[in-house]
Amino acid sequence: MLKLLGGQFRTRRLKTPKDDNTTRPWTGRARESVFNQLRGHIPDGRVLDLFAGVGTMGLEAVSRGAEVAVMVERDRRIFELLEKNIESLGCSDQVSAVCADALGSIPLLRAPKPVDVAFIDPPFVMMQDESLRERILQQIANIEPLLSKDGFIVLRTPIDPKRTDHSVPVLSGPEIHKLGSNMWISFYGNKNI
Fold first, then answer.
1. With contact defined as beta carbons under 8 Å apart, do 44 and 69 qualify?
2. Cα 12–4–119 angle (5° rounding)?
3. Residues of the chain with pLDDT under 50
4. Contact 155, 167 (CB under 8 A)
5. How do the domains of the chain map onto residue ranges?
6. CA 171, CA 168: separation in Å to the nearest integer?
7. pLDDT tens digits, 85-130
8. Are 123 and 146 in contact (CB under 8 A)?
9. Total-model pTM
10. Under CATH, which architecture does the 42-190 domain have?
């Protein structure tokens, strides 16, 4: 059972697929840790959520006071659950769901500007494939011009960024946090801070 943890929708349940292999929602502990790190950046913020799944991070951000969130998910079945979750929370005035490839140009065109927080949560198999990982890191670089002065990009990965380079030359970081045996969270920010 997947529940939102904080803010106005605290304890509200999100619809998830019956098949556990389809998505890989953030654990409550990992979400709480990330939102503690982002304290002060979420209220009234603009959020971009790539590989949004059923909406775990973007909807948690809206629950905690984000002004607007654009959530991108390509899988049609998961996207329908995302839309149902937005509808059940009654936050469609704040949340735009986009059915598109998170690595394409549509998410960049639809992103709220400026982006205060971007969540990037690709399927772990994509991060484990070198060419796909490079595409993901390139998309992170593509977000840089849209990022607010003190904005953050948050990447979840199953690969230790200290052993496999996750740097993005146009951004500072990543600041790395290990959560669990095979999950690292990397925070990127603007270089001109």
1. no
2. 140
3. none
4. no
5. 42-190
6. 6
7. 999 999 999 999 999 999 999 999 999 999 999 999 999 999 999 9
8. no
9. 0.94
10. 3-Layer(aba) Sandwich (3.40)
